[in-house]
């Protein structure tokens, strides 16, 4: 327990250090653009694959479970929409991104640490944490919601394709279903979740990578810890946010 | 001039530095030598501020680096250049971007002036036409040269070098040593080199400090080092068969 509190304290102290002795503003702009490409563009492929199939599977499995003739078929579209917007798009996408982005951040920073690149920055009088990590956090907060919106769209579209191609629902019923009883707040909730998850994944992974000690083996351990801890944090905050905001 | 006073450092209850003091004069290449695990690199990291010592002081031309205010520490940091053991070049940047990095971060120089300065430094360390190459595309010796170019690009007053010869063939190692000594002399820099390479000691060491188990056992110039009566230093020196042979030949006339 004491170790956990110690880690939490060091994590908070690390986040505080990002905002002290910051570098010139224009330095961050270029770095944020680079990180947006690295975190965002490079993650599109995995997000497209995962979200399309999740939507497709959700539509087929919902149809399989709708055994009562009293329930209208358009409900398949409604369930795919609500599951996608509330949970699948923000949470599953961010769990996937914690693997893709989290390991990338922790591995990159860990390698920089063991090859003394971070020491080189500090000797120059540059706040290495702020210079390296702050752009990753800002970029994550910018691109994660975009990826979640993309995932949501593709998941619903995947449900449409699988539902109509397998014949479990007609296109009109599906379109009717995804428009029925729509609550706009659910989208706001999904975007709030994506911002919180972006912050958690980028900071936890950076923390793990930045304090790597040792060699290549420890870089691997840092990456694993980054993914594990990020996933736990995402799921924990998924529950907390649902309790607080729904 | 850099002065260190009674530097002590302990890791997990193990004493790594047991009160080291010394003076490193201007325009001199000073060497900190000793076997593996004797605290050389820890001492260097304490001097440059990468590790905070438990007690003691580091003074750059009389300015307190450890306990001085942040403005002084920042000012001193801008006067420091350092070459790391593995060169510590930024993997994602080209040679040119690596050398230009301190100028980008710490100055408001126009781009063309920065480029001129980078080209001058690269030429000074004997590198030309490698500006656009990535660190992974150049040899270990070239990486050391780029590291030196990056270290001197801000016109430092103090240069720190950690194990400059590690991973290099003997000929390249001598070239790097000579380059460090030349730059020290040319720009009147206070240079501290951490090494266990006896070729460096005999070749460029103007002042040598010998560490053993976290303690300073000997200091002086490299000309007198082979005359030492300190058993641990003798053991360290004459582990190198060439020096042992040279000493025996001298004794036999």
In short:
The complex is a heterodimer of chains A (246) and B (253). By secondary structure, chain A is mainly α.
Quaternary structure: heterodimer
Structural class of chain B: alpha/beta
- The tally of structural domains of chain A comes to 1
- Termini Cα gap of chain A: 31 Å
Helix content of chain B: 25-40%
**Under the CATH scheme, which class of the largest domain in chain B?**
Alpha Beta
Overall number of strands of chain A:
0
The helix-strand sequence of chain A is HHHHHHHHH
In terms of DSSP E residues, the strand content of chain B is 15-25%
What's the arrangement of strands in the largest beta sheet of chain B?
Answer: 6-7-8-3-9-10
- Please tell me the CATH architecture of the largest domain in chain B by its name: 3-Layer(aba) Sandwich
Throw out a few tags for this protein.
heterodimer; B: 253 residues; Rossmann fold; 2 domains; 4-stranded antiparallel beta sheet; P-loop_NTPase (chain B); ATP binding (chain B); ABC_transporter-like_ATP-bd (chain B); transport (chain B)
């Amino acid at each position: 327990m004491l170790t956990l509190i110690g880690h939490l304290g060091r994590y908070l102290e690390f986040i505080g250090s990002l905002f002290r002795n910051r570098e010139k503003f224009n330095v961050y702009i270029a770095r944020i653009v680079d990180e947006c490409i690295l975190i965002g563009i490079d993650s599109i492929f995995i997000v497209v694959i995962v979200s399309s199939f999740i939507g497709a599977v959700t539509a087929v499995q919902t149809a399989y479970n709708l055994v009562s003739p009293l329930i209208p078929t358009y409900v398949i579209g409604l369930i795919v929409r609500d599951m996608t917007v509330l949970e699948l798009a923000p949470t599953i996408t961010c769990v996937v991104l914690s693997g893709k982005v989290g390991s990338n951040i922790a591995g990159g920073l860990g390698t920089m640490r063991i090859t003394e690149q971070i020491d080189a920055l500090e000797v120059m009088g540059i706040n290495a944490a702020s210079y390296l990590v702050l752009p990753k956090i800002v970029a994550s907060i910018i691109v994660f919601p975009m990826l979640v919106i993309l995932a949501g769209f593709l998941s619903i579209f995947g449900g449409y394709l699988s539902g109509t191609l397998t014949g479990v629902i007609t296109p009109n019923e599906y379109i009717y279903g995804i428009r029925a009883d729509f609550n706009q707040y659910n989208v706001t909730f999904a975007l709030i979740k994506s911002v919180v998850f972006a912050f958690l994944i980028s900071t936890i992974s950076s923390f793990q990578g930045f304090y790597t000690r040792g060699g290549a083996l420890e870089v691997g351990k840092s990456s694993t810890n980054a993914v594990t801890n990020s996933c736990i944090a995402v799921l924990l905050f998924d529950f907390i946010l649902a309790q607080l905001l729904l | 001039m850099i002065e260190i006073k009674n530097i002590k450092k302990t890791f997990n209850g193990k004493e790594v530095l047991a009160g080291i003091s010394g003076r490193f004069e201007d325009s001199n290449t000073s060497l900190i030598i000793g076997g593996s695990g004797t605290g050389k690199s820890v001492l260097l990291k304490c001097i440059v501020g990468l590790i905070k010592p438990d007690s003691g002081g580091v003074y750059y031309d009389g300015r307190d680096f450890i306990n001085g205010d942040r403005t002084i520490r920042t000012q001193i940091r801008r006067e420091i250049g350092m070459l790391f053991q593995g060169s510590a070049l930024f993997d994602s940047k080209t040679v040119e971007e690596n050398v230009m990095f301190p100028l980008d971060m710490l100055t408001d120089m126009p781009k063309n002036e920065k480029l001129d300065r980078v080209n001058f430094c690269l030429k000074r360390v004997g590198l030309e036409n490698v500006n656009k190459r990535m660190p992974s595309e150049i040899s270990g010796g070239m990486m050391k040269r780029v590291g030196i170019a990056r270290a001197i690009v801000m016109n430092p007053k103090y240069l720190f070098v950690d194990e400059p010869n590690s991973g290099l063939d003997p000929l390249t190692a001598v070239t790097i040593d000579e380059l460090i000594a030349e730059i020290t002399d040319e720009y009147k820099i206070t240079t501290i080199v951490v090494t266990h390479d006896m070729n460096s000691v005999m070749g460029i060491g103007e002042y040598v400090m010998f560490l053993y188990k976290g303690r300073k056992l000997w200091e002086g110039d490299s000309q007198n080092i082979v005359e030492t009566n300190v058993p641990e230093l003798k053991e360290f020196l004459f582990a190198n068969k060439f020096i042992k042979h040279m000493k025996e030949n001298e004794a036999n006339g």
